[in-house]
Amino acid sequence: MNVAAIATALLLLPSIAMAHGKGMYPSEAEALQRAKQLGCSGAHRNGDAWMPCRDEAALHRALREQ
Questions:
Q1: What is the pLDDT of residue 44?
Q2: Of 13, 27, 38, 41, which is most buried, counting CB atoms within 10 Å of its CB?
Q3: Residue 66 and residue 39: Cα distance in Å, rounded?
Q4: How many alpha carbons fall within 13 Å on the CB side of residue 21?
Q5: Do residues 46 and 37 lie in contact, with contact meaning Cβ atoms separated by under 8 Å?
Q6: Structural domain boundaries in the chain
Q7: Where is pLDDT greater, at 57 or 8?
Q8: Predicted model pTM
């Protein structure tokens, strides 16, 4: 891995972690409500929590578009 790739990864990690912290809900209904606000559809499980959008990639796309 080159230096630029490492630097990019380090810059992105906080935003990925922040997305998880802000995007985890105790119920599927709450995640679906947030998905509607983000303009994506569906919800997916992450451990014991629910996250908006049909999958992780869709969630990150929706968050970037905000």
A1: 97
A2: 38
A3: 10
A4: 6
A5: no
A6: 3-65
A7: 57
A8: 0.67
